Amino acid sequence: CEACLDAGADGIYFAALGGERDGLTDEEHTKYLAPLEIGILNETRAKSAMHFLHMCKPHVDLRRFVDYPCDVYNWGVLESGTSLAEGYDIFPGKVMMGGLDDRSPALLSGSYEEIEAEVHAILQSVDHRRFILASDCTLPADLPYDRVAMLERACESYQPVMAAV
Length: 165
Fold this sequence. Notes:
Blueprint: H1 2-6, E1 11-16, H2 26-45, E2 50-55, E3 72-75, H3 77-80, H4 84-90, E4 95-100, H5 105-109, H6 112-125, E5 131-135, H7 145-156
Helix pairs in contact: 6-7
């Protein structure tokens, strides 16, 4: 992490493992894993403008990561069963990132209109809160770049629904 920051990286994207509910117990995570991961994040904080935390694997218990010193939080919404709205409750005041299923039929092979509908639904669900649209996990390596460009266009075409006053 330090070498990347010294080379000019603006932040850290840290993939944390061990948060799965069917792996370590809460006590084991707190005692053995969290101190090591939090230590890495604290050590790099002075050199990093931003810390992104990706809580990897299915069935992740996001509450295990509330003490991690991060600015942006990302996880597999479908895999974990924890919605973006719940993420805002767990990490108040933080930026959420994700929402897009990396295996979504719309993303992988759908029409632009299907991608646009999915992106607009995600953006509507976060209700004007601080959010970065991204994949819940790694995009397929063979995903054509024009599919990613469609995501950008779909974000640009989004017109938020404002509540009547």
